[in-house]
Amino acid sequence: MRTLCILVLAVVAGCCVGAEPTWNPADAVKEAEQDIRTGHIKFYWAGSIASRPVGVPIEMAKKYPKADAGVGCVTNDIPLRKRQEEYARRYNEKIFAYITQKH
After folding, report:
1. What is the percentage of the chain residues whose pLDDT exceeds 70?
2. How far apart (Å, rounded) are the C-alpha atoms in residues 22 and 13?
3. Could you give the CA distance from residue 71 to residue 30 in angstroms, rounded to a whole number?
4. Rounded to whole angstroms, how far apart are CA atoms 63 and 39?
5. DSSP result, 36-102
6. Distance of alpha carbon 85 from alpha carbon 97, whole angstroms
7. Taking the model in full, what pTM does it have?
8. Alpha carbon 61 to chain centroid distance?
9. Kind of pairing, strands 66-71 and 43-47?
10. 44 to each of 5, 10, 54, 95, how far by Cα in Å?
């Protein structure tokens, strides 16, 4: 029973960690293409006090679910924030191009 409990905890922890983006800007377009294929359209928002959808009109982004790409001012890791914002920009631009082309 203990082994089963440990196994379940390991699987749950792996799922939680695996769900987080890598924040490698090179992966953003791949994620966007996957989300387009599966129909899970969203826009990444970033910023400290006033978050915003990076690289797309706010009125368009408000129509879709929000994803967090570094919202809030709880980190001093500036390189991480820059990667998150670039990731969000590339992802959002791909999604925006798909939406505007589709309609």
Report:
1. 77
2. 16
3. 22
4. 14
5. HHHT---EEEEESSS-EETTS-HHHHTTS-EEEEEESS----HHHHHHHHHHHHHHHHHHHHHHHHH
6. 18
7. 0.77
8. 13
9. parallel
10. 35, 28, 7, 10
